[in-house]
Amino acid sequence: MCGISGAVGLNNISELLFEGIKNLEYRGYDSCGVALMKNNRILVKKDIGGVEEFYRKHNVIQLKSKIGIAHTRWATHGKVTQENTHPFISSDGNFAVVHNGIISNYRPLRDKLKKEGFNFRSGTDTEVLAHLLEKFYKCSRNVEKAFIKTLSVIEGTFALAFISSYLPEQIFCAKRESPLMLGIGDEIKFVGSDFNAFIDHTKNAVILDDGEYAILSRDAYVVKSILSEEEVTKPITKIEWDSETSKKGGYPHYMLKEIYEQPQTISNALDLEPSGLDGVVDMFSKARNSYFLGVGTTYYVAKYAKYIFSQLSQEFFPSISSDEFQALANVDKHSLVFCASQSGETFDTLSALKHAKSKGARIAAVVNVMGSSIARLVDKVIIQGSGPEICVISTKAALSQMVILTLLAMKLALKKKVITRKTYNQHLQALRELPEIIQGVLNERSGFIHRLASKYSASRNWLYLGRGVYYPIALEAALKMKEVAYVHAEGMPGGFLKHGTLAMIDDDVFSIVFVPPPEDKVLYESTLHSIEEIRARSGFVLGIHFTPQGKNQDLYSEELILPKVPPLVAPLVQLVIGQLFAYFTAISLKRNIDKPRFLAKSVTVA
Ligand code: F6R
Predict the structure, then answer these.
(1) Ligand 1 centre distance from Cα of residue 296 (Å)
(2) Distance from the CA of 12 to the center of ligand 1, in angstroms?
(3) C-alpha–C-alpha distance, residues 91 and 152, integer Å
(4) Residue 375 contacts residue 401 (beta carbons within 8 Å)
(5) Within 6 Å (CB) of ligand 1, which residues are found?
(6) What does DSSP assign to residue 309?
(7) Atom of ligand 1 nearest to the CA of 602
(8) Residue 108: count of CB within 10 angstroms of its CB
(9) Which residues are within 8 A (CB) of 194 and not within 5 positions of it... i.e. 6 or more apart?
């Protein structure tokens, strides 16, 4: 959702800024730009397109400077054009600003500034910031005071940074509801939307809170409250991620790399400190009503949790898409709201949690990014330890969250004595086998899935069917197909089909069915009924199943046979197949795998 990167140092920082926004490109990638201080004057270069293309085309690396800010954009206000690309400079050229978020009152501000003679060159909300800084500087002749005044008149959400030729060795930045952090190195300071902006250069970060601003110079930094203008003492957060994990490491795409990292990320999830998980289980057991939340993929994680908790702990917990939470849920101090979020910054989820908190509910989360807004807001957080997920499409983070939620459901069931210790241990053993099972599936089935995906890549309509806990798996696998391959894929419970959608079955509609292992007798048989319904209408069915070769041979048009696995983990294994099928379809269709069109990771706007 737009990436901000800034650096001020002893030596040339042009290349560091390039690396910074390159590492943030997953947050937005329709256009990018940079503002550098050269001989006390601001030089701005910007263009539509990706970071590498922009740097090459404008030869930006050659523009040496010791201080600068850069931005990679995901358009919200204003089309994708060079004029609408950040940074924006003030009319007099003395301020250059980059911004993430939405200035909600930008229209009246812009109209007023225009009347006062300020010259607007873009259709964005951000440009008002540059002109406001100029305007207020003219009154006070003080950059910091002009900044405070600007912050006091803008409404909405922001993470912003600017440089000014009046103070050519400093970067100013501030935040409200959009993430921003500082990187603290020796003789170099950074500002970034997240750790990836500077992880290669320092592991010491200062995470800004809402209502704070900071001033950075080569040797020092200060954080202050916007309201009181007083200095705030901030702790240094040590980044635990290894910068190497953020690299592609020989894989053609981050998506594939991250799918292949899943055996490791699941092991990490299973090795989490038990006391952290037990604390959350305690919250579930004490709450009178609990809700699972998430959006997009994490909504499907929440939906998975609904099934697995209902199944294991024999208690119904609703799942709600975060954006619908306020319209639906009625929470109070007896409620628990538990969310899943990879980034920990998603606006819809953050808003739902804040709403729940304002009503007195307890709130908890499983989050991948330490120090993120959600991680800091909730009463209890589980940091899942999956490492950076760079591809815009979530894979490893979602699967690890599902594993953690399975573990929480088992722990709650044990605490409530609805399962015995023996059953708990059997389930735990099943989870412990999962990394190896997935490794085997990746090693032995990828080639087959690749061929299958190529063969059917021209199919434009897919129905993804699953029953019970396989339904959220079908939904999530369908979402992967939509977002990476831009192919229509509709996830649906198997039983739902005959209530309408069956009418669609023809030569242009393909179905993929997630079949449970036969040991899961009721679910297995009802899933086979759904398949029969399609086949009876001559529909195409790709069955992903665990039944030995030769059994039910005529049932499927195509089949992908998986090894026998414990039923508890079978849906998770099938999700990996769904991820690979979407990936290889997108490869055949030559899609932009890690940065699909129109999307951005970490959606920090409403
Ligand atoms: C899909 C995807 C999105 C995110 C959603 C929530 O692959 O990544 O649907 O799951 O935007 O994001 P987080 O998990 O960061 O809260």
Answers:
(1) 5
(2) 36
(3) 21
(4) no
(5) 295-298, 341-343, 346, 349, 393-394, 483, 602-603
(6) H
(7) 15
(8) 11
(9) 3, 24, 27, 179, 181, 369, 602
Q: State the catalytic residue, choosing from 2, 173, 339, 391.
A: 2
Closest residue by CA, ligand 1 atom 11: 296
- Judged by DSSP in three states, 294 sits in strand
Token pair, residue 107, equals: 């229209």
Residues 6+ apart with CB under 8 A from 410: 312, 419, 424, 427, 428
Q: How far apart are CA 185 and CA 203, in angstroms?
A: 8
Residues composing the chain: 606
- Which residue puts its alpha carbon closest to atom 6 of ligand 1? 295
Residue with tokens 């292949």: 260
Ordered DSSP codes for 106-154: HHHHHHHHHHTT-----SSSTHHHHHHHHHHHHHHS-HHHHHHHHHHH-
Q: Write out pLDDT tens, residues 279-325.
A: 999 999 999 999 999 999 999 999 999 999 999 999 999 999 999 99
Q: How far is residue 522's CA from residue 536's CA, in Å, rounded to a whole number?
A: 21
Distance 69 CA to ligand 1 centre (A): 27
Relative to beta strand 156-164, strand 167-176 is antiparallel
Tokens describing residue 354? 């804040």
CA 398 to ligand 1 center in whole angstroms:
9
Give the closest residue to 592 by CA, choosing from 30, 72, 196: 30
Question: Tokens in use for 36?
Answer: 């550098």
**601 catalytic per annotation:** yes
Contact 465/575 with Cβ under 8 angstroms?
no
What are the chain's domains?
Answer: 3-239 (3.60.20.10), 250-419 (3.40.50.10490), 445-595 (3.40.50.10490)
**pLDDT, tens digit (0-9, with 9 covering 90-100), for 511-569:** 999 999 999 999 999 999 999 999 999 999 999 999 887 677 789 999 999 999 999 99
Query: Which is the closest atom of ligand 1 to the Cα of 298?
Result: 10
Tell me, yes or no, if 2 is annotated catalytic. yes
Q: pLDDT band for position 605 (50/70/90)?
A: low
- pTM equals 0.84
- Residues 6 or more apart in contact with residue 250 via CB below 8 angstroms: none
- Atom index in ligand 1 nearest the CA of residue 346 equals 16
**What are the CA-CA distances from residue 606 to residues 103, 123, 302, 309, 352 (Å)?**
12, 19, 20, 30, 11
